[in-house]
User: Which sequence fits this backbone?
């Protein structure tokens, strides 16, 4: 039997990419129940190939006992496009179809930091405006009390 392709989703994180892998569903039935690859093989191997401007890099083979799992590839260049393909195999079965390439751009730390600074700056400016308005109001320049004519007092 040929294994694969697995379902692969990737998202970006600061200087890294997060890869979610779902093992392919085999078509083996045991007493009418569809079995998973983990039911059949106990443990699966997976290989991730990372493609960028520098070319293709095969990552070391990893093992999993989960149907659905995530892994992070870190220490990547920010704002650079990376593509990933995953192949799943078993010690007893080395016939596989790798996943189609999925691509994403790695986030940069600076962009996230900039966003936090922008939000903090907006909060500070708002607080300063509120404080100034409060002082001006307390000094009586805004919403001065209307003095009623003597006849109504």
Assistant:
């Amino acid at each position: 039997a040929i294994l694969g392709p697995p379902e692969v989703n990737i998202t970006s994180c600061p200087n890294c990419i997060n890869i979610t892998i779902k093992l392919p569903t085999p078509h083996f039935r045991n007493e009418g129940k569809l079995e998973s690859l983990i039911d059949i093989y106990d443990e699966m191997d997976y290989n991730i190939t990372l493609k960028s401007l520098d070319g293709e890099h095969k990552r070391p083979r990893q093992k999993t006992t989960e149907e659905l799992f995530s892994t992070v590839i870190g220490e990547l260049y920010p704002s650079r496009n990376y593509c990933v393909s995953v192949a799943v195999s078993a010690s007893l079965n080395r016939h596989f179809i790798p996943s189609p390439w999925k691509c994403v751009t790695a986030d940069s730390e600076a962009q996230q930091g900039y966003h936090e600074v922008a939000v903090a700056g907006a909060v500070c400016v708002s607080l300063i405006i509120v404080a100034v308005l409060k002082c001006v109001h307390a000094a009586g320049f805004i919403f001065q009390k209307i003095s009623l004519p003597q006849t109504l007092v």
Remarks:
- The chain has a mean pLDDT of 82.
- The helical segments are 37-41, 109-138.
- The first strand starts at residue 7 and ends at 13.
- The chain has two domains: 7-106, 110-142.
